[in-house]
Amino acid sequence: MENKTNKILLICNAVLLLGLIGIYVIHFTGVGTKSKVNTDATAPLVKEGGLTIAYVDTDTLVAKYQYAIDLEAQLREYTDQQKRYGQQQIDAFQADYNNYLQNGSSMTLTQQQQKEAELKARAEKMQTLEQDLMAKIAEKQAAETAKIMNAIYAFVREYNIANQQFDIVLTKSASLYANPGMDITNEIVDGLNEEYKTVKANQQ
Predict the structure, then answer these.
(1) Residue 176 to residues 26, 63, 171: CA-CA distances in angstroms?
(2) Could you tell me if 27 and 61 are in contact, meaning their C-beta atoms sit under 8 angstroms apart?
(3) Distance of alpha carbon 68 from alpha carbon 155, whole angstroms
(4) Which parts of the chain register pLDDT below 50?
(5) Is 43 left (phi over 0), alpha (psi -120 to 50) or beta?
(6) All residues at 6 or more sequence positions from 88 whose CB lies less than 8 Å from its CB, including other chains
(7) What is the 3-state secondary structure (H, E, C) of 3-51?
(8) Could you give the CA distance from residue 94 to residue 44 in angstroms, rounded to a whole number?
(9) How far is CA 135 from the centre of its chain?
(10) Which residues of 164-189 are buried (b: 16+ CB within 10 A; e: fewer)?
(11) CB crowding 77-94: b at 16 or more within 10 Å, else e
(12) Which of 43, 80, 158, 201 is within CB 3.0–4.6 Å of 184 for a Cys-Cys bond?
């Protein structure tokens, strides 16, 4: 049973880690809501092959974007809740099973059969507990990641409309080399944080 508990905890941690990695990798897909743009953008227009290109350093963005920071904390708390729930279920089953081993002989045959059937059903449920926890954590992660993806995508789109009209906005990780003059990360981070601050204030 201890191995089962450790396996569940390891899986929960692995799912959370994969979810957070996903936030780093897939920011710029999805559809968001209207965002406030930073009209004081400083990155110059840089043309390459007739295209106007800029890039965003997603590592810096996620590290400084308060929504992403808050999301990480929320996901960790949710995962901890699921881990505690899983442990409670295992502990309760183990306690009932041990109690039956100690006191089952005092039961009638019918009571023994009923208790054994109950324990068997619960044991089978324990076999799928880890998959159930994984599914719940993955569902939560997907929903929250979609929100942050939408926010970033929408902001970059409207930032571009309001400022330099870039043909392409890349992530820095997609390039082997990027001219620092093409970096608009600070403008994007500042704008996103200002937008998030406004959203939080309106929700209070």
Answers:
(1) 18, 21, 11
(2) yes
(3) 14
(4) 2-41
(5) beta
(6) none
(7) HHHHHHHHHHHHHHHHHHHHHHHCCCCCCCCCCCCCCCCCCCCCEECCE
(8) 65
(9) 13
(10) bebeebebbeeeeebeeebbbbbbbb
(11) ebbeebbeebeebbeebe
(12) 43
pLDDT tens, residue by residue, 27-51: 333 223 344 444 444 555 555 567 8
pLDDT of residue 132: 92
Residue 158 to residues 38, 69, 113, 152, Cα–Cα distance (Å): 9, 23, 67, 10
Here the tokens at position 49 are: 């092959």
> What is the rounded distance in angstroms from the CA atom of residue 83 to the CA atom of residue 9?
6
- For residue 26, what pLDDT is reported? 33
* Euclidean distance between CA atoms 185 and 46, whole angstroms: 15
What is the distance between the alpha carbons of residues 67 and 73, in angstroms, rounded to a whole number?
Answer: 10
Predicted pLDDT of residue 173: 84
Q: At what angle do helices 2-25 and 66-103 cross, to 10 degrees?
A: 170
- Distance (Å, whole) CA 188 – CA 185: 5
**The predicted structure's pLDDT at residue 66:** 94
Per-residue pLDDT at 93: 92
- pLDDT at 127 (0 to 100): 87
